[in-house]
C-alpha cells in the first residue's frame, strides 16, 4: 500500500508539472481520483486488511460527523473524470487534484491514517512536481 500511495502521489505531481509546462498552449492536465471502487486491484490482498482499512476510515469519518464509507459504482467513479474533462473549466481544474466532482482541498500531513478525502500539500507542491519531472527526464534520458 505504501508503494501504491507513492505512485498515486507521483501521478498527481506529474499532472501539476505537465499543466505548468503546457497551459500556455491550451493543453491542461488534472489528477483525478475516482473514489473507492471495488476492482481487481486488491485481489491478492487479505480481505481482513481491507476490512481494517475501511474500519479506520469509518472511525475518522465518524469523528468528523460523517456517515460511513461506501464503495462507488463504476459510473459514480467515472463521474469525476467526466466532470473534469467536460463540465469544469480548464482554469478551475488545471494542475489540480480532483475528487467527487470538485477540486480537492489540502489536508494536514499529520491527519490520521484512513484519509479518503482531500490531498496532502506535498502531492500538489510545484517544486516537488518540478523535481519529479527532472528526475523522470534523467531516468529516461530524454528532455520533454
Task: Give the structure's gist in a few sentences.
By secondary structure, this protein is mainly alpha-helical.
What can you see in these coordinates?
This protein is mainly alpha-helical and 144 residues long. It has one domain (2-140). 49% of the residues lie in helices and 8% in strands. It contains 5 helices and 5 strands, in the order αβαααββββα. The chain has helices spanning 2-22, 47-63, 74-87, 90-93, 126-140, and strands at residues 31-33, 97-99, 102-103, 106-107, 119-120. Strands 1-2-3 form a 3-stranded mixed beta sheet. A two-stranded parallel sheet has the order 4-5. Helix 1 crosses helix 5 (126-140). The protein is globular and about 45 Å long. The mean pLDDT is 92.
What attributes does this structure have?
single chain; 144 residues; mainly alpha; 3-stranded mixed β-sheet; 5 strands; 49% helix; 8% strand
**Helix-and-strand structural type:** mainly alpha
What's the mean pLDDT score?
Answer: 92
Q: Shape, please?
A: globular
Radius of gyration: 16 Å
Total strands: the figure is: 5
Kindly report how far apart the N and C termini lie: 30 Å
Describe the biggest sheet?
3 strands, mixed
Instruction: List unreliable stretches of 5+ residues.
Output: none
DSSP strand content: 5-15%
Question: Numbering strands along the chain, what is their spatial order in the largest sheet?
Answer: 1-2-3
Q: Portion of residues in helices?
A: 40-55%
Compute the number of helices.
Answer: 5
N-to-C order of helices and strands: HEHHHEEEEH
What is the count of structural domains? 1
Amino acid at each position: 500500500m505504501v508503494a501504491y500511495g507513492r505512485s498515486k502521489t507521483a501521478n498527481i505531481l506529474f499532472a501539476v508539472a505537465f499543466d505548468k509546462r503546457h497551459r500556455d498552449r491550451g493543453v491542461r492536465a488534472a489528477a483525478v481520483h475516482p473514489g473507492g471502487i471495488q476492482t481487481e486491484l486488491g485481489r491478492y490482498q487479505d480481505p481482513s486488511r481491507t476490512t481494517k482499512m475501511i474500519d479506520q476510515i469509518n472511525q475518522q469519518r465518524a469523528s468528523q460527523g460523517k456517515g460511513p464509507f461506501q464503495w462507488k459504482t463504476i459510473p459514480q467513479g467515472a463521474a469525476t473524470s467526466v466532470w473534469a474533462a467536460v463540465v469544469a473549466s480548464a482554469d478551475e481544474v488545471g494542475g489540480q487534484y480532483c475528487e467527487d466532482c470538485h477540486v480537492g482541498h489540502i489536508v494536514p500531513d499529520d491527519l490520521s491514517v484512513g484519509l479518503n478525502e482531500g490531498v496532502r500539500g506535498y502531492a500538489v507542491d510545484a517544486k516537488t512536481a518540478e523535481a519529479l519531472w527532472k528526475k523522470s527526464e534523467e531516468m529516461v534520458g530524454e528532455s520533454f
